[in-house]
Records
---
Amino acid sequence: MTEVKLDRIGKSYGAVEAVQQFDLTIREGEFLVLLGPSGCGKSTTLRMIAGLESITRGDLLIGGDRMNDVDPKDRGVAMVFQNYALYPHKSVFDNMAMALKLQKVPAAEIQDRVGRTAELLGLTEYLDRKPAALSGGQRQRVAIGRAIVRTPKVFLFDEPLSNLDAKLRVKMRLELQELHARLKATSVYVTHDQVEAMTLADRIVIMNGGVVAQVGTPREVYDNPADEFVAGFIGSPAMNFLDLTRDDTGGWRSTCGSMALPQLPVNTGQRHQVRLGVRPEHIEVMPGGAGAGEMTYPARVLLDELLGADALLNLGIGEARLLARVGGADHPVQGDTLDICLNSSQLHVFDIESGKALR
Ligand code: ADP
């Protein structure tokens, strides 16, 4: 178990700054997830830790030692790739044993370590098979096993579940959680899938255009997104956004005119415009005419989508459009009129220019 310190590391490809000033200490035993859309610099960051990419600026320390110029194989890291990267002509056993053989580990110890790892991953009965004769999930387990037998100080995962179908992804996600609970090894995991990030991470780093937008626990990034980008990226369906303009009384009105909000739960300073954010699951839906609270608005269901346990309602409040998530049983349907209620403790407010959350 080892701490990994990224001391303002950066990577440029010519004029392109793929990663800027990444500054973070990954704690011993922590499961850290790098999350963000394609091209935001997640893989580049991971590959700099692995030593597969040179570091343009800053220092990388693993277990307190500077690693910038250390060979990948001497960093004490093991990486699991999206495409498994198994040797097709070698058996599962040989794929897992390969690195140990190269390290000249005695044969009896290799048997023992591969055997125990195969048992841990449920691969014992497949040790003689070639990768082609395995399912996608089993192949990825072999790739994970190959990393585990090396007993690395740090595990690096590059979108390891992306090639699996949805059902298998959920299963492998649970397996990874169990594995981490047992091994407690420092892990850095790259994904663009926010559900994977929320379920696996001790802390999530959300990246946007090569820059760290926020670092926090899943709860923190969901409850208190630092900016509009994080707010829109975490949560599914995504948060609703609505522009507000200050009215003559000092209260706020949706810029399209149809919703009035007497006050906002944050300090808006001198701003005349802000952007409101509200998650679909935080819009309370009531029968029409039932509520008379301050932030209760009559709405019409423009479209309803049943997901099963839940339903999504596309709502029109005058010109304003909001997506609400409600229970799937007896949910309101297209054409229904109802009241919606916003709870001020669940509203997010952002600066229009910078996108930063106002507190
Ligand atoms: P992610 O993993 O988040 O999808 P990457 O780390 O792969 O993103 O890429 C970050 C940025 O760096 C992207 O703009 C990408 O085009 C650029 N990039 C990555 N590798 C290279 C390379 N070898 N040469 C030039 N630009 C690259």
---
Amino acid sequence: MLNKLKQWKRRQVSEDADERFQELKKHRIPEHLAIIMDGNGRWAKKRALPRVAGHHEGMKVVRRVTKLANQLGIKTLTLYAFSTENWKRPKMEVEYLMKLPEEFLGTFLPELIEENVQVRMMGYEEALPSHTANAVKKAIHKTKENDGLILNFALNYGSRFEIIEAMKDVLKDVQNGILEESHLNEETFSQYLMTKDLPDPDLLIRTSGEIRLSNFMLWQLAYSEFWFTDVLWPDFNKEQLIEAIEAFQGRSRRFGGLQSEES
Ligand code: IPE
Ligand code: IPE
Ligand code: MG
């Protein structure tokens, strides 16, 4: 009896989620969603598992969220997978994290191709082990003609690093007469960032209860909406994605101006 009740309840919850999911599509959907996928280690610790088990579980969530984002009509999904500061972690964990792109793409690349997803990467590629960089490059190459969701992995990414590199390129172009100093403005500077052909994120989600940016897209997030949850990344599911987007749809984005009815 109790089991039947549980089953009924579970079905009810998933039917509700499906309805809410469909409802979302009738309203404003973020064009660019960025996610700081955090909490894998704590998820594993809670289960007395090694931290890497959390990373492995987190990878499955990437697959599910990619599918959902695609179904919602989100154009770009940027996922923070490894920061320029994550090298500080124990060697064994770093090695595992560097193997994950191969494992993820080895398993899901055919599915991504099928779903018209375009894989991209932003980050300091030269410092990645060659097996990691090659797996990503292969996926980028195989999906470059796809024009559906852009799945942009921030891998060995750090926003301060990105800004410094952009500054160096700006200086070079000014010295070589390619860019006039008087033409340097927010728009032209954006063209030197790793996101040069992407719009700024409309919505940023961070899981695991940490309320900080951890060196993620400092320039690009200037006017994004933020949504934080205590849920750990491996537990992140359709329900939370719906909640985040519902919250986004209820926000009034003013960009420093006034709401249209106030003007
Ligand atoms: C996020 O989970 C994944 C990466 C940073 C690579 P964490 O590994 O940071 O998990 P916590 O924050 O320690 O729980
Ligand atoms: C941010 O998470 C980086 C990624 C999710 C890849 P961290 O777990 O590294 O951030 P801090 O150390 O808690 O700020
Ligand atoms: Mg963390």
